[in-house]
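Work Package 3 (structural annotation) set out to generate three-dimensional models for the target panel prioritized at the project kickoff. During this period the team completed the workflow that converts sequence records into discrete structure tokens, so that structures can be stored uniformly alongside our sequence database. As a representative example, we reproduce one entry of 287 residues exactly as it appears in the project archive.
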Amino acid sequence: MEGAFRRINFFKGFATTAEDWQAVESYHAEKRRLHNKYFHPPGVIEECLGGLAVTATRDGSALHIEPGMALDEEGRELYLPQPVDLDPNLQEFRSKTIYVAIEYKDKQVDFRDNAFNSDYAGHAFIEELPSISITADPPDNRTKLELARIALAPDVASIKDPTDLSRPERNEINRLFVKRTGRFRAQLENIADVMLEGTRTVAGSGTSLILIQHDQPSGEHHFYVPSVCPVELKSDRDMLTRVHQNQGLYWKILIRWTQDNLIAYQLEIANSSPVDMLVAYKVYRFR
């Protein structure tokens, strides 16, 4: 909204116009969107209705989206009051990753005609009903939000719900990348930046050092949140039997001085098991 917010002030004998009532609607809509934009990050509100959950139909030929609500980056409310079923067109998207996305849409409805004067005819309401689509292009998660993704195999015949929610396979619905918002929810991505991420093989009973960043000594604290998870054990079955229950991965942040009198912040990953491990790592830094 350009300029200051103005709310309408009614008084006795006030003759209103259509523009006055449009201003009333704009005032409340803009105020609400401004609040949403700066107090809530974009994402799905899981607590509302069915949380916009995406599941496969019984025969695996279509996707079912539950009703729910989300907020986009502009603070607009994407409210889906009824469930939606979509045909993913598996033949067209073979071997690709497809995305289920939701996007804000509105349109004028309920046209009121005036046979005597067309200047006094018009639509009585604006209906806000988001669109749900399937695309091969990743949504930006700003104005177009991801609800699910599915990595399709070349021979895909049907879509399934994931057997393991934490590790969906090909042709299974993956909701691990859905951004979420709502009450009492703070996502790490909203308060911290990803400094680095990748994969690395850590030798059995060995360690691996990964540079996060160099910095000048300043006396300021750096708050990092590292995360490491195994991707693959690089060993044969006989070697795996030698891995004890208390053996695994450990990691920590190290600070070291360089020859250039800089501070090197490093992620150290230690593998206490005898087998080589391919690991994925990610390091956040609080803003």
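The mean pLDDT is 88.
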